[in-house]
Amino acid sequence: MRWLALLLICLLTQCAPPEQQTSSTTPRTLLAIFAHPDDEATVSPVLAKYAAAGVTVYLAIATDGRYGVTDHAKIPAGDSLATVRREEAKCAAEKLGIQPPILFGLHDQLKMGEGMGPLNEQLNTMRTRIAELFTSLKPDVVITWGASGWTGHHDHRLVSTVVTEVFQTQKWNKPVQLYFSAIPTGNLPANSSMQLATVDSSFLSVKIPVSESDYEKALASWHCHKSQYTPQSIEGMHQLLKASLKSTAYFMPVAVSSIEKNSLF
Predict the structure, then answer these.
(1) CATH number, residue 188
(2) Residue 20 contacts by C-beta under 8 Å, 6 or more apart in sequence?
(3) How many other C-beta atoms can be found within 10 angstroms of the C-beta atom of residue 43?
(4) Which has the closest alpha carbon to 174: 43, 58, 52?
(5) How far is CA 142 from the centre of its chain?
(6) Is residue 236 part of a domain?
């Protein structure tokens, strides 16, 4: 399995130059960072794929999801819902075969309704936690969303921004590469009930094939999030993503050119 894990990581990282490459026996680590418990569903087939190939896969979740109230679950907003969603995140990670989730425990909506002071405290904590993960886990690859956060949700956008900000603060030895997950423009079915942001395929240069087995694990993990979805809604969204992605996960590499120029053109 080691050669397969190396091959898959090579596909995801586009292969480092020879001087940066390590032996095939060196463990590889992938870190995905998202806003809420259940957000991993956007890339869960990829997480399952790499975990099965022997890569150590971590999922970090920024907020506690305490405001994700649904009619069918009838769990009030607050600590009780946050507790339920924490357990759901653990269940989802287990179904995917990845490491237990890393929960920042920040306030859902990042306290933005309380003013700039509390919001900035939440963002500063997030920056610190992400930098600590980069240092302690030394991931080869980090995955998050791009500017839209897939759905346009403000928490999604802020998490994406902070992950990118921390990644760009310095030249890390690891993580080597940051990737934004996206759906190619034009791939959503015309009758889609979900409004998802898309990215032109010319920007999505990394394309990872995912198998039916990967999708099965992803679906099983999605069913852990019972407080958020009914079985029927899960099946509908799962089929929508499968139809949109067509057995491929698309990523945009976030990289800084090392070539100095004195013009933007």
Answers:
(1) 3.40.50.10320
(2) 176
(3) 26
(4) 58
(5) 8
(6) yes
